[in-house]
Known about the structure:
By secondary structure, chain C is α/β, with parallel strands linked by helices. In chain C, 53% of the residues lie in helices and 12% in strands. Chain C has a 6-stranded parallel beta sheet with strand order 3-2-1-4-5-6, sandwiched between helices.
Amino acid sequence: MLLKSASFALIVVALTACAFAQNDSAIVVLGQGAAPTQVLVVDPPNDGGEKLDVSWTPTAQPGFDILKYEVLAAEAAEGPFKVLAEGDHKMTSSVITSGNGLRLEHDHPYYVKVVAIDSTSLAVPDSTNPDSVVVRFEKRLRRSESAVAGPFVPRAAWFNMNRLNILLLVLAFYFAVMFMVRRAKAGANIQFRRIAGIDAIDEAIGRATELGKPVMYVPGTQNIENIQTIASIQLLTSVAAKAANYDIPIIVPLNRAFMVTVAEEAVKQGFLNAGRPDAYMRDNIRYLSDEQFAFTSGTTGIMMREKTAAHFFLGAFYAESLILSETGFVAGAIQIAGTANTHQLPFFVVACDYTLIGEEYFATSALVTRDVEMMGTLKATDYMKAFIIACLLASLVLEMLGVQFLRSWFQVI
Amino acid sequence: MEFFWISIAGLCTVAILSFLYSDNPLYKVAEHFFVGIAAGYVVCAEFYNVFLPNLWRPLTSGSDYWLIIPLILGIALFTRFSDELGWISRWPMSVIIGTYSGLAVIGFASGDMVLQVQASLIPVFEPATISTFSSEPSVLNFLQIFRNPLFTLGLICVLFYFFFSVEHKGGLRHIATTGTTLLMIGFGAGYGYTVMTRIALLFDRFYFLFVEWLKIAA
Amino acid sequence: MANTTLQKLEKLDRRWVFLAMAIAVAAPLFFKLGLAPKTTPPVKAFYDYIEQLPPGSRVLCSFDYDPGSKAELNPMCVSVLRHIMLKGHKPVILTLWSTAPALIERNINEVCRDEFGKQYGVDYVYLGLKEGREAVMVAMGKSIRSTFPTDFYGTPLDNLPLMNGVENYSSFALLINVSAGYPGTKEYVQYVTSRFAIPMLSGSSAVSVPEYSAYFQSGQLRGLLTGITGAAEYEALIGKPGLAITAMDGQTMGHFVIIFFILFGNLIFFINRRSKGRA
Amino acid sequence: MKREIPILITLVFGVFMIVQFFIPHPAVNDIANRLQNWAIIVISFSYVLGSANILRINGELVYRRAPGWPYKLVLVIAFFTMATPGLILGIAEGSWTNDRLFTFTYVPLASTMYASLAFYIASAAFRAFRVRTWQASVLAITALIVMLGRIPVSHFIWQDLPGIVDWIMGVPNAVAQRGILIGAALGAIATGLKVILGIERSYLGRE
């Protein structure tokens, strides 16, 4: 119904506009008739001073069939006014922002007026017969303008209060991280539960050693700016160190040219940590292709040819996960996967011996490297999670009592 | 002429599918051709869609001389090819990493953390679901009863699985197990929907082969 | 005897599996079943949201897929454009995927120009590609003009009437994203809908549907086209059957084959394991 | 110089990307916007770098007559077949590169590459999908229900099946995804902050 009347109104506007396009412009009436009264302009808080809230009261006089409203603004009271917003007859308020060649900027004065547009019948002499006294009634658009309001000066805010909740959460989290890292560095004993994935990593490398076959490590298929890739590179150093300890080669296929140096450095560091810098082989860090499937078939090719016995798929993966893990499964390799890309987890769960799910993957990185920095971070993350669980528990009670304080506190925008 | 080009496309399709039987030279040619074409296309796309409008035109028209900085940084990326000057490429790299890290902190905090938590701050139980079920008993109305409990208590179980400070022992093990069960339901859904995608892509290729190219099916 | 056959089956050459899959999916091309799906809530919500917009609304469309995911998402892209045209809305279209521009341009020309006879620049605009993923999404929140100084054809935005007055997301009534992965719906949810007040609909590759269901449930997405089945439901809703509905026959057969393989594979596995246990 | 400046650049860009969210004032936002536009340009260069690298590596292999070099030559030729007319004549509709090369070679090659995943998923279903644990059985049962419920004949199998799948997707699945999203978000925020503050600098490599 609403839709119908709206589209009908639009058709009426369009038809009238077309029919009288050759005539003079619409009639303009100032401050009377259908003109809105009481134009209110408010500078909305929490913005960069590029917006104004305009609201108005429609005319109290009956008998006007208002088609639409236009909100106009100008830099001077005398104009030129530009249309910054428009809407149908039900509209009584609007947020205006830059447009139509007029820039709304903070600390500049602006003048605002609202125009109601309705159609009216007007008697005009029949132009085809100048002598005739007969008049025709033509429908014309009538613009009834409100008084010019202003000047209004939008102000730019230095802080968006609506986003205070996010700032507080991020800051709290940040300080928790800093605090726990400091404690970890000071030698505090930070305890975590056992993660089966860590044993699985050792087991996989052990298995490869028994078979005397290389290990393959795929650090995802995304560039180094991806957070999962960063975590993977940290793990790569540890896995490379373990492989170096057992004196088995570690092959790292890459599908980002960018990643070559980064991966080379990580593996080199791992071999250095294991005291085997001499065993490092640069040729085992292999850039295959930037193209996803060329990379995938290149990687499965390495699995088949070099009979890699342990596969690590750690990082951000996409469609290639299925082919990689299935080829590895069929080849009988022991496989460990970890990713935060949820949509690839099912295939890893089904075809890999152990799968690190989402955050478990980031946690493993911390626990494997025993890096105080990362351990502290993991602990802080746990505190944050405890806070969220506490909020959920509190809301169980609050929401049942009809108190929605927590929910509104978590509102964004 | 049109049929010639469609046949080229058909040949490309068959060449890639031939890999399913075994690796062969035809597949290798097609694959390498594909990688070359892709790399070439990316250069053209970046040139027309970013380099010209966002950098070259504003710079040469004099509307924004500051753009000389990203130009230099962009060119500096290519020092990666040099062993001595390679370190310079870390500067533009840092631009990329700094930008993405900063954006990610906010994106994940507002979009995934805060708003997802908020959506679960609901009453643990909706009494109306019981009355709906009792007046209209059906499997679906029965399942709806568990909606709110799952979104609140169920979410706590899933979060607890990702809680690393406590051993999952005793009664806590059941919480973690419930969390794992929910995760596995999620992965099962993921599996099913991925199957949907893959089959859709395959059907499209068969449609092309048999309907558009060979015209042996309608 | 039976056991050895089953043990052989467990190590069956996968090319037989490939062949079975090929026959199942291709067969419906020769023997039509004419199946059509029933509407599901996320697709209905998607459809309803576009329906209830006032005619003439400016809609920002980001079509982010590539030739590899074309089969699934092109039908969505075409249907979204058709629906927008049918309702008289005005799309401003862009992409963040570097191999997408040509695919999308073809759809726009076919639907907006040829099928509906709309005028470029007045009724629809194609901004083309911008590299930079999340950075582009956030930059558009400040100024679309500085992010896209020109459209796909090199025309400055000032010369396009539809772009008149367009500054950022607040100039649009709706954001529609057709997404094959990264960057796509997840990033738009993280960087745009939670930052700038713009409602968003997503047409997603089925792969990402489970994840995006959480966004749909929380209201961060107002509607969701769920893979090829969702595309088919949507085609039925707007009354323009296309490739997605055609694909439903093959889809059905394909699902059955996978279900069969999972059950059969496990059946063999358990029988073999039991006989090994006895031995 | 080799490490400090990159860390400083990361800090500046990262901090502006964060504070622009909280400080709407143009004094901050305009700078952030400028930095963003620079980043877009640099990222675009990085893609060209990727292509140039492919060309460089493969060109070198051809030059050295490395094993399989004729294929690499095909790659190099394909690159120039696309890039040369593309850069001169453009890639919009109506151009040879788009209407012929892109449409009739790139599109079928790319879509067939992805389409072949259907075969691998079938073979993985048969050979690698084993219900060995209770977790895998929950996964398998859900997968089977979802696959059955999302085809047009599902309501013939059981009239409530489509509704049940809607419920699975909208409730337990959404809960699981939500848990993962929240957990992953915390990890991402921590890493992001540490990168910006120069605590995490493995992306710079070793000096």
